């Protein structure tokens, strides 16, 4: 719920109340124009500068000089036993094997080179290859731009970005000039084979929604739209891809056998007429991040019995204890209750959130049905009028905002900040006692140096590492990241800070382990510490990106930041506010894509955040106070 998380080293202001400080953004906008996306590393004299395949390379190579790796996407048609790269290295350096020499990558899709500087110093580099399969007869999952043969315009989603139209269910499909926008990119995902025919769904990367034939449409000349995935009537979203010539295809709907066509600049379905307007070119492109609607819909809670239905924050804590094994806790901050809704996805604009926090229990890691998730309750609450608020507001305080947490044995330890008005006052550790039901007791503890709103990570070495950040520019557009830790066997012991060499209880000696953008999240994915950072999203700034970096150690150093996603969220013609980046490390799929979430807040750049509904009620769109989910291929950062 914060623009910078609540930490002892830097008391900060709650996001919802920062409006009174808009003048700060005007004074400091010049800082944004000076920022670099990444800080270039000094040249080593033994670097790979470029890596280009003679044939079959898809997209540009990605060079990671901090860990001496290169990642290259390669077409599945290439002979992997004889790949020929052209390589450029640092001036005066040599490389072995030489540039232009064929290499065999068929065994493990990687190859090692030795780059020797003019000084004689050598460095081994590893080149990783990812094969992108564009063979319709064999592929399971691929990313494509789909262009019509008649005019080379690409398949996309219609709508006004300033009103978020391209995200909405049933937004129309169109064709437009190809500009490599995310709404012009599609996943082809193999779903089934029927009578020898392979069928795919087409998922838009921008919206996460699927190319769909409207139910009950006329026989021909049918306009198409995007929609949620259908659990029944799946034929409306299934498409076969029939080869016409090399790289050219017909796309046929399973429900009615009609062809995806362009007529009068409209995407429709028509009977086969053997014309170019019914033929499509599929250009395979590298994997990239995309909106995950299945995860996002978990927070689309609209039923009157659901308790917390719209909220921000959204840390997740996977459970392993007893009957809760496989379940997940979702921690929220300020939340609206179901009885404050005027209808599905619509909040009462004359009310305000009811809870400062709540906790939702997901029944399993692969069950994203919001109907199956329930709220926890605190039997010892001091706020009986707030049925689903878990952490009490302390005497003299106005709010308690929990966030990061970790399970140890039969308990869950959750960090929370506590404050009054515009001031962050206390940090606390809430200890939840698990039960087999939904009523969980808890205790509030305050161990020395408690903190860590940016991440609470089991290191696998007997310690839990807790991350926080503090502004290093006086405003919060850039920050320093710090880490403290506590022993798993005794979370209430004094927590200690990293001081650059070791661990100390003296917080004045703490040292930064990394620099970051405005807001940060740290989690452990596999054996790497992954850092998600996000541009300042509460002001009307142009930089609106998510970045990832990683380290092999909890204390760094972290790799260069890599931009992995641009946040395009608008409300009523103006930029929507975004904040609270969170990594969900347990949620990595079979394609090595990790889930990241962020929160939205109703207000934007002086845009009205409510509307009058058809019944004359002041209403607010709940979309703007629910978590947004993105899947990011870890290969984008070299993992």
Helix/strand-derived category reads mainly beta
Which overall shape is indicated by the principal axes computed on the Cα atoms? Answer: globular
Overall mean pLDDT stands at: 90
Main sheet overview = 6 strands, antiparallel
The count of strands amounts to: 47
The strand line-up of the biggest sheet is 12-11-8-20-17-16
Tally of contiguous helical segments:
2
Instruction: Give the low-confidence spans.
Output: 1-43
Q: What is the first-to-last residue Cα distance?
A: 30 Å
Write the layout of secondary structure elements.
Elements: H1 22-34, E1 48-53, E2 62-64, E3 69-75, E4 85-89, E5 94-96, E6 110-116, E7 122-132, E8 141-148, E9 154-157, E10 173-176, E11 186-194, E12 197-204, E13 210-212, E14 222-223, E15 225-227, E16 239-245, E17 248-253, E18 259-263, E19 266-270, E20 280-284, E21 290-291, H2 293-297, E22 308-318, E23 328-337, E24 341-343, E25 346-348, E26 358-362, E27 374-375, E28 399-408, E29 411-420, E30 423-433, E31 441-445, E32 455-458, E33 463-471, E34 479-487, E35 496-498, E36 503-504, E37 514-516, E38 519-525, E39 528-534, E40 545-551, E41 562-566, E42 570-571, E43 574-588, E44 593-604, E45 611-612, E46 618-621, E47 628-633
Parallel strand pairs: 3-7
Antiparallel strand pairs: 1-4, 2-3, 5-6, 6-7, 8-11, 8-20, 9-10, 11-12, 13-15, 14-19, 16-17, 17-20, 18-19, 21-47, 22-23, 23-26, 24-25, 25-46, 26-27, 28-29, 29-30, 30-31, 32-33, 33-34, 34-35, 34-37, 35-36, 38-39, 39-40, 40-41, 42-43, 43-44, 44-47, 45-46
């Amino acid at each position: 719920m914060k623009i910078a998380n609540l930490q002892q080293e830097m008391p900060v202001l709650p996001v919802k109340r920062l409006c009174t400080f808009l003048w700060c953004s005007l004074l400091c906008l010049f800082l944004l124009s000076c920022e670099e996306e990444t800080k270039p590393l000094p040249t080593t004299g033994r670097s790979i500068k470029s890596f280009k395949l003679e044939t079959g390379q898809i997209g540009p190579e990605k060079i990671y000089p901090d860990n001496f790796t290169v990642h290259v996407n390669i077409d599945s048609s290439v002979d992997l036993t004889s790949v020929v790269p052209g390589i450029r290295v640092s001036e005066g350096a040599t490389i072995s094997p030489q540039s232009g020499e064929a290499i065999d990558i068929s065994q493990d899709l990687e190859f090692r080179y030795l780059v020797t500087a003019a000084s004689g110093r050598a460095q081994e580099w590893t080149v990783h290859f990812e094969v992108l399969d564009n063979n319709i007869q064999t592929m399971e999952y691929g990313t494509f731009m789909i262009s019509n043969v008649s005019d080379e315009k690409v398949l996309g989603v219609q709508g006004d970005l300033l009103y978020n139209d391209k995200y909405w269910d049933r937004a129309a499909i169109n064709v437009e000039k190809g500009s490599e926008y995310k709404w012009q990119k599609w996943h082809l995902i193999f779903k089934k084979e029927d009578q020898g025919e392979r069928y795919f769904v087409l998922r838009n990367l921008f919206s996460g929604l699927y190319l769909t034939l409207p139910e009950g449409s006329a026989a021909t000349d049918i306009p198409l739209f995007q929609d949620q995935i259908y659990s029944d009537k799946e034929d409306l979203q299934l498409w076969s891809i029939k080869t016409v010539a090399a790289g050219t295809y017909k796309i046929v709907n399973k429900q009615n056998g009609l062809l995806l066509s362009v007529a009068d600049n409209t995407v429709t379905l028509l009977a086969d007429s053997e014309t170019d307007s019914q033929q499509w070119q599929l250009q395979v492109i590298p994997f990239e991040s995309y909106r995950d609607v299945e995860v996002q819909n978990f927070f689309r809670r609209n039923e009157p019995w659901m308790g917390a239905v719209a909220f921000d924050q959204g840390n997740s804590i996977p459970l392993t204890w007893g009957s809760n094994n496989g379940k997940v806790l979702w921690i929220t901050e300020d939340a609206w209750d179901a009885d404050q809704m005027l209808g599905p996805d619509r909040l009462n604009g004359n009310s305000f959130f009811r809870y400062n926090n709540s906790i939702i229990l997901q029944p399993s890691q692969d069950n994203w049905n919001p109907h199956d998730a329930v709220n926890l309750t605190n039997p010892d609450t001091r706020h009986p009028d707030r049925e689903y608020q878990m952490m009490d507001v302390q005497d003299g305080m106005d709010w308690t905002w929990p966030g990061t947490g970790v399970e140890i044995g039969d308990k869950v330890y959750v960090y929370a900040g506590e404050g009054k008005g515009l001031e962050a006052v206390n940090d606390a550790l809430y200890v939840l006692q698990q039960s087999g039901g939904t009523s969980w007791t808890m205790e509030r503890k305050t161990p020395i140096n408690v903190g860590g709103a940016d991440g609470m990570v089991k290191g696998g070495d007997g310690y839990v590492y807790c991350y926080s950040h503090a502004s290093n520019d006086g405003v919060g557009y850039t920050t320093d990241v710090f880490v403290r830790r506590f022993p798993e066997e005794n979370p209430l012991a004094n927590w200690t800070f990293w001081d650059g060499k070791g661990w100390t209880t003296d917080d004045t000696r703490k040292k930064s382990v990394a620099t970051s953008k405005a807001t940060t999240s740290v989690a452990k994915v596999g054996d790497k510490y992954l850092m998600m950072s996000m541009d300042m999203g509460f002001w009307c700034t142009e930089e609106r990106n998510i970045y990832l970096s990683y380290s092999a150690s909890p204390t760094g150093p972290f790799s260069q930041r890599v931009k992995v996603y641009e946040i395009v969220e608008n409300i009523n013609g103006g930029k929507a506010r975004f904040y609270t980046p969170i990594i969900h490390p347990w949620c990595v799929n079979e394609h090595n894509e990790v889930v990241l979430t962020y929160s939205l807040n109703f207000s934007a750049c002086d845009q009205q955040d409510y509307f009058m509904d058809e019944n004359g009620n002041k209403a607010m769109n709940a979309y703007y106070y629910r978590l947004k989910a993105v899947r990011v291929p870890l290969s984008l950062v070299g993992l």
